[in-house]
Here is the input.
Amino acid sequence: MDFKNLPPLIFPSSNRTERALITKLKKEGRIHAVGPRLYSSLPKEEWASAVRGNWATLVSTLFPGVLLSHRTALEITPSSEGVVFITSGTSRTLNYPGLTLKFIKGPKALEDDSNFMNIRYSSLARALLENLSTVHKNEKRQRNLPRKNIEKKLEEILHLKGEKELCKIRDRARQIAEQLNWAKEFKKLNALISAMLGMGESNKLVTKSAKARSIGKPYDTSALERFEILFAALKTQIWSEEKSAFNSSEHFKNKACFEAYFSNYIEGTTFELEEAEEIIFDRKVYEQRPKDSHDVLGTFQIVSDPNEICLTPITFKAFENLMKKRHLKLMGARPEVQPGNYKNKSNSNRAGNTHFVHPDYLLGTLEQGFKFYLELPEGLARAIYIMFLIAEIHPFADGNGRLARVFMNAELTKKSMSRIIIPNVFREDYVGALRAMSRRGRTAPMIKMIRKAFKFSDLNFENYQKVLEHIKAHRWFEEPADSKIIL
Here is the structure.
């Protein structure tokens, strides 16, 4: 042991020389006893943080071979109250600054209980049974995870490893229950698993997400949390219902052209404007890029149809049907992405490090998220929400960004408000705001971004050449790395 640079925590030693040094350091006031068989060289106000941060080292050093159990075996960290639960031959409690070791009398480790830093921890099957054991309601330190956390753990297993793995864990739990005489605990676990597999009583479950899974409609709880955050922010905003002053047929058609061009450009389907004009107005298909040509034309055909672009859903079934119909129109030239059909496990999509809602959770998440949409006022609030709902869930293998913006502008068209265009130069503002909402739950950047886009998009597109000169002068066609939009 190097006593020149003292470690924050010091454990007793069997070495006579080191014991003498520890005694000397105590007398000099350089270290202090902070708990059973534990010393610290830190100031008193830092003891709790050091002990809590090194809890595993403390347990493995002072109590090698013990069994971490109950909630500790599932969390592999002290509880929020700083308690670590250990099954041993006796019951006792040891207190350290910031940490309590609660020893519970119980059966020793089994052969499949895992190893962790020279200590053991209960296998998943055993830990689930332990966390379903009966405890006194007034127990000072709750050794068991709340039921909702156990259901969440079972959901994770189902989601990541499937029914086969969950059934395997149940079979092992049955063996452990017979060996340790834990019949009551297994009965509870079996009821939970059966309910989640749709073969038991859903009223045995306590969380909404577990109940949804039991009826075959599981949903992504983290995505739903983000939808709830956005809903709350949108619900409390004051929204203008300012109508657009521009409503001629030429304005409508020309704006739809630019909307289709820019919406595809964001997604990497890039053409020169002259080429896009030929695709849209002359129905030209570029031989080297027939699918890209159709993407632009399909977008235009939706957003330029005054009967189509004002349609908004009033029921979830109508929402589904409208999404599938519009997606088929948008991506009809790309059979590899199964236009009009939800993504599946073979074509499930991601963007960089961002994983979108898993196909197993897609339908349930859409349905739960749509409920918030119905509670928002028509206009910008619904436009922002439904755009993010589709973009975040990514229900199809491709074309989700374009589809999200179509639905956003349908909300605005229905209220005779100016439709939003996201030009090239504004792409990073748009994507960055979506990321802030998706990754950090920050609503302000997205709401601010959409309000800004709503204002600069409210132009008169009736005279094509005149508006083209305007948006060129305001840098709409430039790359975001090179320029900023002029308002």
